[in-house]
Amino acid sequence: MTDIPTDVAVLDDDADFAASVARMLGRRGFRAQGHVLPATLLAALSAGNIACVVTDIQMGDADGFAVARHVRRLAPATALVFMTAWPTTSHAVDAVRRHGGLDYLEKPVDEGRLAEAVRAGIDWSREAHRIAAATASLTPREREVFDLLVRGHSNKEVAARLAISARTVEDHRAAIMTKTRTNGLAELIALSRDGV
Amino acid sequence: MSSGIQRRGRGGLGRTLRGADVSLLVAYAAAFAALHHVARLWGGSGYFSLWYPAAGLRFAVLWRRGVRMTPGLMMAEVLTDMATGLVPWHGPEALHDIAGACRSSLVSGAVLGALQALGARHPESALSSPMRFGLAAILAPTLNALMVVPFDWLFPRPLVPSQSVPALMISLSSFVTGDVLGILMVAPALLWLTDLADAPRPMRLPPARDVAEAAGVLALGAAVTSGLAHAGLGVQAAPHLLAGAWVGLRFGRVGAWFAILVQALMLLPWSAMSLDYPHRLELHLGIASVVVVTWIAGTFTDAQTAARADLDRRNRMLFQAERLKTLRAMSVAVIHEISQPLATLAIEASHLNASCAGLDPDLAESAKLVDRKARHLSEMVRRLRRFGGRDVDKPSPLPLETVVRTARQIVGPELLRSGSRIEMAPIPADCIVQAQEIELTQALVNLLRNAITASTRADPPATAIGLTVQSDALSAAIEVSNAPISHAAAHDVSNGMGIGLAIARTIIEAHGGALTRHDGPDRVRFVVELPLVPMAIA
Question: Read out DSSP for B420-437?
């Protein structure tokens, strides 16, 4: 578990503000780094220790939502928190629904709320990594069985669809439970819904 | 007098008479009898009178007290006529004469009620004040005359043979002439007097120059008429008509009424002489024309004056609204500009406050104060943003010319400071976009602001910023151009350039448009493309 990311990256084209937020988060116990350019953030993300990205939405030539899409592609288990000095309802909705943001903060930001969002983001990232790790150990066939089970199909239906015996499905199901440390179909479904 | 006429009669026929109305009706009956008697002076063979001031009295009461007075007036007139012997109490002609006595009030009340209802339904039409009074003054007598024959058919006179058609026409035209003259000469004066009694106010005499002009014009008309009469051409009303139109157009209804009074005083004595019927009728038709034209001219002038005053008032309100909108756009821009540095300041102030907790009390107090003020300012910015935000800025058809003009005003001080200038071509008037005005103005302000900053840092220095608007059938393109920034300055981001561009792009895309950059060899060009609202909709 030591390789699960815990760092926070703050992206804002105002270098002073990015540094200020990073320092503020540092004082609250987070390991945070400020970034001015999306490229340096994405490079840091590739290094693999960022759990949460706090990004401005409108930055000079860059678009915070475009950065969010890159982050999702590069590291799906990274939490996103958005900030803006130009809040709009449509942006707020997009931030949460389309880009999976945990919060949408208006500048000047509320420190407590930002810290809370970052903390929730790191927790979410940790859980996402755990789920990703759990499902990553499944074999391709187990993954197929897993996908059908969490969609509500019975063992018989899974067997019919995959052209295998019901007994084999039961074996796969037991293996999936063991690997994902779940106990029953309800937890499996919960795992699939929390997963990234 | 004019305000008295503008105050429209209240109440409908359905309302009952009030206690105060009874005393009014008693006074009305007495005045009606007197005026009816006076009218006999202008009577003749085959007609009752060519000047009937009692019609003016009736009209004034209905106008001021409302058409609900109609039944009361009918009753008062019938009883008066019976008391004076004009209408028999009984006998074969009683029903006919009573119906005839009721007819005038009934028709006048119906005309006023109809015009009142139509005016309420179409407030911007010619049925609105002050034209309604003029229309009612002409329509009521005309309809009253037209109802004579139907009433005679419903309530025939058994002992009197029917009139010949020519005799009937002469009688009815005299009837209309007498009532129109009576209404236009008496009703305005009565309404003015009652208005003055309701709300006493100091008399304001007209300027002597105006009085002299009106008197001169009327005297000229009288002189020409007199000259024509002495030349054996008869009493011609045309010179008076021109004089009355002049006075009415120049001085409104008050001037028109005095002109009518003067002209009637000059012309009516002619009709009191021994004239044969055709000449008298011709003279009175001429007088009626003079009175109607003079009154309509005065009414038209007053209506025009009122419309001009209303337009001035609306223009002032519009100017005020424009200023408020500009102010709001500026406040939104200011809020945005300060929120970014304030966000940093608030965080650092909070940290400073926490760090100074155990230090020198004076230092700690200062840090605490700075933190409190920063938090207060942050809350104020959030509140102001909500106040000036887009919730109050609904999308509406908006001329691009307005957007450009407002944006130009907002960046005016920055232009002055930087020594830059905006070179603009005329903006097509048909460029209408569906937009939130504050936001779109903000987008253009941001582009202009960036262009101003870039111009000051160009190498060689350049001060001209280009701003053009072009359109085709479907879209408009606003181009903001400036000299390119120098290579050395390109890496200096201390002035915050770029933020405005992102916001401008967001706003423009939210309006269904696009912001693109088309650089030339010596110019940086940003082009805002926006869809136009079809003219039929705009």
Answer: -EEEEPPPPTT-EEEE-H
